[in-house]
Amino acid sequence: MNVTSQDLHDKLKEFFGWDAFKGNQEDIIKHLIGGGDAFVLMPTGGGKSLCYQLPALCLPGTAIVISPLIALMKNQVDAIRGFIQNKEGIAHFLNSSLNKSQIAEVKADLLSGVTKLLYVAPESLTKEENIQLLKQLKISFYAIDEAHCISEWGHDFRPEYRRIREIIGQISRAPIIALTATATPKVQSDIQKNLGMLDAKVFKSSFNRENLYYEIRDKSNPKREIIKFIKDNPGKSGIIYCLSRKKVEEIAQLLTVNGIKALPYHAGMDAATRAHNQDAFLMEEVDVIVATIAFGMGIDKPDVRFVIHYDIPKSLEGYYQETGRAGRDGQEGQCIAFYSYKDILRLEKFMQGKPISEQEIGKQLLMETVSYAESNQCRRKILLNYFGEDYPEANCGMCDNCLYPKKQFDGQEEMCTVIELILSLPEAFKADHLANILAGVNNSIIKSYNHHHHELFGFGRDKGVRFWSAVIRQGLILHLLDKDIERYGLILVTPAGKAFYEHPTELLLTEDREFVEGEDDDDDEPVIGAGKHSQNAGGGGDQTLLAMLKDVRKDLSRKMNLPAWVIFTDPSLEDMSIQYPVTLDELKACQGVGEGKARKFGKPVIELIAKYVEENDIIRPDDFVVKSVVNRSANKVYIIQSIDRRLPFEDIARTKDMDFEELLTEIESIVASGTRLNIDYYIRQTIDEDKANDIYDYFREEAATDSVTDALKELGGDYTEEEVRLVRIKFLSEVGN
Question: Which of 175, 403, 424, 660 is most buried (most C-beta within 10 Å)?
Answer without folding.
Answer: 175
